[in-house]
Amino acid sequence: TGEVDERIGVDQGSFSLGLSIDDQNRIIAAIRGQPLLRVFQNGKLVSDLSPAFSEELSAIWSEVLFENGRLHIVDYLTSTLKTFRYPIGSSTDSNDA
């Protein structure tokens, strides 16, 4: 029921958009650009993870997955899987894919 009305990627290099749905059928969108990593839920910004993880994730990743209270962000360029508690709190896991 929300709408993200923002230009992303302009003067910020490449970006990607990952989408998933949580266990309450809410849309989760994660925008990853350089150096952005922001998570939206139903069109509202719920977390800006950029400061904590901009060095660890590459400019373009490919998947965002929700599973049992966890949000997984898969970066295929660096073979990295980042897992966060959802709703976003602190990083719970950091595994190499």
From TrEMBL:
It comes from the Eukaryota. This is LAM_G_DOMAIN domain-containing protein. It comes from Gongylonema pulchrum.
